[in-house]
Structures are given as C-alpha cells and as structure tokens.
C-alpha cells in the first residue's frame, strides 16, 4: 500500500469536508440527541460507504474509458458549469 497516497487522500478529504453540510448535520444531531456516539458511528459509516462507492465507481470508469476521454469529459463539464455560473445565474443577482 502506498502510504504517501493514503496520507495525501486523508488530508485532502479532511480539509475539504471541514464545514461541509454533513458535518453541520452531525453537529445538529449530536446536540439534540441523547447518544452522540450513535451519531458519530452513523455519520462515520455513511462517509466510509460513500467514499468506498466513489472509489469503486471511479476505478470501474477508469478501467472502461481512456484517460484522455475522461479528462476531456471533466474539462467540458467544468467549462459548462463555469459558463452557467457566469452568464445564466440570474437568481443570485436579483
């Protein structure tokens, strides 16, 4: 196992999840319930399952499609999102 990759993945996900809506939901649930331990294990299991499903599905897609095609799809997707945010986001300006 590549421990450098494990550490890099952990740090990246940890930093990106700070202040995420799932953490805010866990804080709200643990503040209102009698068992914060149950909230911890439930949210930890949910994060593990979603991360596992994302890694498996990403691996499957990477095996089926060439890298250049995946990069092109990602680039086009981000470009579409950027254009929509720049030119078609009328709700935020009103």
Automatic annotation (TrEMBL):
Recorded GO MF terms:
metal ion transmembrane transporter activity
Q: What membrane topology is given?
A: Multi-pass membrane protein
Transmembrane spans: 38-62, 69-88
Q: Which GO terms describe its cellular component?
A: membrane
Provide this UniProt record's keywords sorted from A to Z. Answer: Membrane, Transmembrane, Transmembrane helix
Q: Where in the cell is it found?
A: Membrane
Q: Which PANTHER family match?
A: TRANSMEMBRANE PROTEIN 165, TRANSMEMBRANE PROTEIN HTP-1 RELATED
Family assignment from sequence similarity:
Belongs to the GDT1 family.
Name of the protein described by the UniProt record: GDT1 family protein
